[in-house]
Design a protein that fits this description.
about 170 residues; mainly alpha
């Protein structure tokens, strides 16, 4: 519908550059645990993305796949690699959300939409920013050092409880 070969090539190159940058971002995190290489992680990234696309839900099916293959290649725990994969997914989601909110804010000024919709968009943005600022303030003000001590005492008890010991016996990698 009006797309020329030139526009298709530009779209392909932009998509390719996104995948290359995404792989490079992931390599920087994986290198904390293993000597990752670009062409080693690229097929794993693409495979995980494929699983994300075919899995119904919130696109989290590919992260365990990426962690599994990286743990097989580098002979390390898959939980470390799962953390890197989930971190990049979360970071990408946060960045996409922020850019979407900025776009909504800008578009509410430049598009000719009814005033009621503009007010709704702006109220939602103000509420979201208020929530973020409040969460940051509460986290800074109410962080209690004693909580860390309690968690250090409680978490090993939970980990070694009857239920989790049975669970760990069924899955040896835990």
């Amino acid at each position: 519908l009006g797309a020329t070969f030139y526009l298709i090539v530009i779209a392909f190159l932009i998509d390719l550059s996104v995948v290359v940058l995404w792989n490079y971002e992931w390599i920087l995190l994986v290198r904390k645990f293993a000597p990752a290489r670009f062409f080693t992680t690229l097929p794993i990234l693409l495979g995980g993305t494929f699983v994300n696309n075919i899995t119904p839900g919130v696109a989290v099916g590919g992260e365990p796949v990426k962690a599994h293959f990286l743990s097989k290649i580098y002979k390390k725990s898959s939980s470390e690699f799962l953390a890197t994969s989930l971190f990049t997914a979360t970071l990408n989601a946060v960045i996409s959300t922020v850019f979407s909110l900025i776009a909504l804010f800008i578009l509410s000024f430049f598009l000719d939409i009814p005033s009621l919709y503009k007010y709704i968009i702006e109220i939602c943005l103000v509420l979201f920013l208020t929530f973020l600022i409040s969460a940051y303030y509460m986290e800074r003000k109410f962080t209690i050092k004693r909580l860390n001590v309690d968690l250090d005492r409680i978490l090993p008890k939970i980990y070694h409880s009857f239920f989790f010991s049975k669970f760990r016996s069924k899955f040896k990698s835990l």
